[in-house]
C-alpha cells in the first residue's frame, strides 16, 4: 500500500524523504515522488518504478529545501505512471499533497471542482484533495485542510505543503495509519515507524481526525474544531537493526530465521511451568468467558490461516464453539453477533482495512473484541477491548512468516488461558502442553537446519507450472499457508486440498509428475493420509512429504521427504510450516523473483 513521509527541519528534506520512503518499500509500491519547498516554490519530482529512479534523478539534479513530503504509490485509481504518481498538486502548484487511502466520492468531487474551473491531469482519486484545499484556501492552510477533508468520504492519511505558508506541513488521518516523529528541531510524519527511526524514537500515534501542524519550531495537534490536543509520547523500544537485513540476502530469509526468537519472545512472561498464565492486556473473568456462546476468528491471508489453526486449538482446549472467517466475506454475510459473541481479529499490521471494519461493526453490535496483532499503537490494537501482542518484531518482507508462527503461539496461549479459566483441562494436561510449547523454539531451530535438502528439492522443482498441497486436520491448515506462500512469491499456481476431498474432484488434476507436497504429521490421521498419498502416487504424482522424525512408513510411499522434530499433534503447525516457507523461498529465488516485494502485493492492505 502507499507510504507517506514528511519532513520539516534544518537539513535537506529530499534525502531524508527518500531515506524514509526506502523504509516503507516493504509496503509494496509502483512509483515514488517528493515535493519540496524550494525558494518559496514547490518543486515536485516523481517517477513510475523503483525508488532508485527518483534517487538517481535527485543525485543528478538535487532539490534544495528544508520542508517536504514524499510518497510511494501502490496503484488503485489509474495505472502506474509518472503523472499518476504522488505528490499531486493544484494546477498552478501552490499546494501539494501525498495521500494513502482511497477517496470513495472522488468522481462527484472532481465533477464539482471541474464545474468551478479546476483542471485535472491524472486519473487518481487523490488529485481532488489539493484542488479542494485550494478551493477553501483563504490564507489559513489549517482551515482549508479541515474544510476540504470534511468533504472526503473514504480513507486517508495526507501530508500537505503550501507555498504561501512555506514553513508549515499539515497532516491528518482517517482510517489510514499515520505517525508523527519528534526530533530535535526537526519533525516528521510517516505511515509507519521505521521511516523515522534513524532520527527519533519519540512518536505521536495519531488517531482519526487528529490534525497536526509541523514547523521546525515544533508540532501542534488540533481537533477539527481547532482545539489543542495533548498527547502522550510513545517511545519506540525496538532497535533500528530489527528493521534491517542483518547480513541476510533478503528480509524474508532473515525473518524465517528469526522465528525461534519470535516464538520465544511471544511465550516469555506468559507461559512458564507450574505458574498461572498471565496476559497483560487481556482480562476475562470466568463468568465473562462462560457467557460467550460463540467465538468468531476473523482475519485475512496468512492471519486467516493462523485463525484456521486457532479454531481447532480453542475448541479442543477450551470447548467453546469457534467459527473462522475471511474478513472481507464476514463483513457482508450478516453474521449473528450478540453481546454473547467474542470476535478475535488477527492482524500482523493491525491496519488491514477489512479486518478493522469487522472489529468496528462487531463492536457496534455488542461483541467483545480481542485483537491479536504485532504492532503496538496500530488501529486494531487501539480499538479492540483486549489485545494480545505477538512479539515478532517488525515484519518487513511482504510474505508473512514470523508473524504467522507468533499468531499460532498466541492461539495456543489463549487456548490454555481459556481452558484454565473454564477448567476444561486438568492441571497435568495444561502443564504437558506448556512443557511442549516451551520446547518449540528449539524445534523450529532444528527444522531450519534442514535447508540443504529443501534447497535441493527447490532446484529440481522450480519450473513446475502447478503444485498441490495436501493435508488432513491441522496439516490441512498448514497446507493452506504453504500454498499461499509459494504462489505469492514464486507465481506458481498452487492449491491446498483437504486430502479426504481429493476423490471428490481435485484428483482429476493428478497426472504423471504432478508435484504434490503432503503433510503427514498428525499421528492420529496418518493411516488415512497414507491412503490418500497412495491415491496420488498411483496416478503418477510426484510426492514430497513433511513427516515427523522417527516415521518409518512415509518413505515407502513418497518420492522424497523431510523430517521435522516431533511434538504433540496439536502443536505441530509451529514446526511443520518451516519447511514449506523454506521451499517457497528457495523456489522463488531459483526463479529469480523478488521475494521481499512480490508483484502486485502490498504488506499492509489498508484499502478494501
Ligand atoms: C501473506 C500475507 C498476507 C497478510 C494479509 C493480512 O504472506 O502476508 O496474506 O497475512 O494481508 O495482513 P495483516 O496480518 O497485516 O492483517
Fill in the keyword field for this structure:
608 residues, alpha/beta, Glutamine Phosphoribosylpyrophosphate, subunit 1, domain 1, Rossmann fold, 3 domains, 8-stranded antiparallel β-sheet, 6-stranded antiparallel β-sheet, 19 helices, 23% strand, globular, binds fructose -6-phosphate
Structure described in brief:
With 608 residues, the protein is of the alpha/beta class. An eight-stranded antiparallel β-sheet has the order 3-2-4-1-10-9-11-14, covered by helices on one side. Helix 18 (554-557) links the parallel strand 23 (542-548) and strand 24 (560-564).
How would you describe this structure to a colleague?
Its main location: cytoplasm. By secondary structure, the protein is of the alpha/beta class. Helix content is 36%, strand content 23%. The strands form 4 sheets. Strands 3-2-4-1-10-9-11-14 form an 8-stranded antiparallel beta sheet, with helices on one face. The protein has a 6-stranded antiparallel beta sheet with strand order 5-6-7-8-12-13. The chain has a 5-stranded parallel beta sheet with strand order 16-15-17-18-19, sandwiched between helices. The protein is globular. It starts with a strand and ends in an 18-residue tail after the last helix. It binds fructose -6-phosphate. The site of fructose -6-phosphate (F6R) has 15 residues, from α9 and α16.
Amino acid at each position: 500500500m502507499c507510504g507517506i513521509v514528511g519532513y520539516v527541519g534544518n537539513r535537506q528534506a529530499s534525502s531524508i524523504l527518500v531515506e524514509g520512503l526506502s523504509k516503507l518499500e516493504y509496503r509494496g509500491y509502483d512509483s515514488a515522488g517528493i515535493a519540496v519547498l524550494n525558494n518559496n516554490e514547490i518543486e515536485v519530482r516523481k517517477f513510475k518504478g523503483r525508488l532508485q529512479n527518483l534517487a538517481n534523478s535527485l543525485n543528478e539534479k538535487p532539490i534544495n529545501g528544508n520542508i517536504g513530503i514524499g510518497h510511494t504509490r501502490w496503484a488503485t485509481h489509474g495505472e502506474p505512471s509518472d503523472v499518476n504518481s504522488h505528490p499531486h498538486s493544484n494546477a498552478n502548484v501552490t499546494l501539494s499533497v501525498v495521500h494513502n487511502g482511497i477517496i470513495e466520492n472522488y468522481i462527484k468531487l472532481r465533477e464539482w471542482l471541474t464545474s468551478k474551473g479546476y483542471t485535472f491531469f491524472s486519473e487518481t482519486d487523490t488529485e481532488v484533495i489539493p484542488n479542494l484545499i485550494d478551493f477553501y484556501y483563504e490564507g489559513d492552510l489549517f482551515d482549508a485542510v479541515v474544510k476540504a477533508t470534511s468533504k472526503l468520504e473514504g480513507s486517508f492519511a495526507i501530508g500537505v505543503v503550501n507555498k504561501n505558508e512555506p514553513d508549515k506541513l499539515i497532516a491528518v488521518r482517517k482510517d489510514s495509519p499515520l505517525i508523527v516523529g519528534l526530533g530535535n528541531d526537526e519533525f516528521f510524519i510517516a505511515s509507519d515507524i521505521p521511516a523515522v527511526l534513524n532520527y527519533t524514537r519519540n512518536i505521536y500515534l495519531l488517531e482519526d481526525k487528529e490534525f497536526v501542524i509541523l514547523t521546525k519550531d515544533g508540532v501542534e495537534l488540533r481537533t477539527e474544531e481547532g482545539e489543542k490536543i495533548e498527547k502522550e509520547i510513545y517511545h519506540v523500544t525496538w532497535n533500528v537493526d530489527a528493521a534491517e537485513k542483518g547480513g541476510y540476502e533478503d528480509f524474508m530469509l532473515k525473518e524465517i530465521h528469526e522465528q525461534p526468537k519470535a516464538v520465544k519472545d511471544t511465550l516469555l512472561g506468559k507461559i512458564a511451568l507450574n505458574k498461572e498464565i498471565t496476559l497483560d492486556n487481556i482480562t476475562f473473568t470466568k463468568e465473562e468467558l462462560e457467557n460467550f456462546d460463540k467465538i468468531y476468528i476473523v482475519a485475512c491471508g496468512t492471519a486467516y490461516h493462523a485463525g484456521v489453526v486457532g479454531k481447532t486449538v480453542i475448541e479442543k482446549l477450551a470447548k467453546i464453539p469457534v467459527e473462522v472467517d475471511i474478513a472481507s466475506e464476514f463483513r457482508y454475510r450478516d453474521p449473528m453477533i450478540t453481546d454473547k459473541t467474542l470476535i478475535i481479529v488477527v492482524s500482523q499490521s493491525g491496519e488491514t482495512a477489512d479486518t478493522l471494519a469487522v472489529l468496528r461493526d462487531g463492536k457496534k453490535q455488542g461483541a467483545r473484541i480481542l485483537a491479536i496483532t504485532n504492532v503496538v499503537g496500530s488501529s486494531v490494537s487501539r480499538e479492540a477491548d483486549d489485545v494480545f501482542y505477538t512479539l515478532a518484531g517488525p515484519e518487513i518482507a511482504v510474505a508473512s512468516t514470523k508473524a504467522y508462527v507468533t499468531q499460532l503461539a498466541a492461539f495456543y496461549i489463549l487456548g490454555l488461558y481459556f481452558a484454565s479459566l473454564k477448567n476444561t483441562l486438568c492441571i497435568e494436561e495444561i502443564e504437558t502442553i506448556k512443557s511442549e510449547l516451551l520446547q518449540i523454539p528449539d524445534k523450529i531451530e532444528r527444522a531450519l537446519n534442514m535447508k540443504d535438502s529443501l534447497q535441493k528439492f527447490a532446484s529440481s522443482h522450480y519450473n513446475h507450472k502447478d503444485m498441490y498441497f495436501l493435508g488432513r486436520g491441522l496439516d490441512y491448515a498448514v497446507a493452506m499457508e504453504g500454498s499461499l506462500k509459494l504462489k505469492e512469491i514464486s507465481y506458481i499456481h498452487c492449491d491446498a486440498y483437504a486430502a479426504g476431498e481429493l476423490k471428490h474432484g481435485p484428483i482429476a488434476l493428478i497426472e504423471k509428475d504432478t508435484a504434490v507436497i503432503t503433510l503427514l504429521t498428525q499421528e492420529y490421521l496418518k493411516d488415512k493420509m497414507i491412503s490418500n498419498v497412495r491415491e496420488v502416487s498411483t496416478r503418477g504424482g510426484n510426492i514430497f512429504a513433511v513427516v515427523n522424525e522417527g516415521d518409518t512408513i512415509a518413505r515407502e510411499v513418497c518420492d522424497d521427504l523431510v523430517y521435522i522434530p516431533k511434538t504433540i499433534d496439536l502443536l505441530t503447525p509451529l514446526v511443520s510450516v518451516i519447511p514449506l516457507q523454506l521451499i517457497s523461498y528457495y523456489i522463488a529465488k531459483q526463479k529469480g523473483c523478488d521475494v521481499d516485494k512480490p508483484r502486485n502485493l502490498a504488506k499492509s492492505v489498508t484499502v478494501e
